[in-house]
Amino acid sequence: MIALTGKKEKRGLSNMCDCYVEHCKGCGYAFPVHLGDFATERTEIYVLCDGCWDCLKNDVKQAGFPGWRVFKIEESNDPEDIWGRGMAMVYLTENAWEHRDMNHPNVLMYKIMDEGRGL
Model pTM greater than 0.90? Predict the structure, then answer.
């Protein structure tokens, strides 16, 4: 049995995930997010809804962040109607970018629509 404390040890909780609700930094729309293996802290990413991404993507691309991915949510068990919505995840650190395959929307099915590296 593992006793969980308030501290997260980066690789100490392997095969466990940080699943929570992250809000769009532009408008506050809520998205379920999955950060795998506690390898990425919540402060290392932010999300934008599809509408805010369309308005801010050039600024994000020029800001020098390590990278981003744009997802289309194809199926979700979330009570909110997010099917068909787009969500951009901006990776604020190299660590978050390196773990991008484990950091994604926490939904049943999504598609990666775009991916890029910062300038």
Answer: no
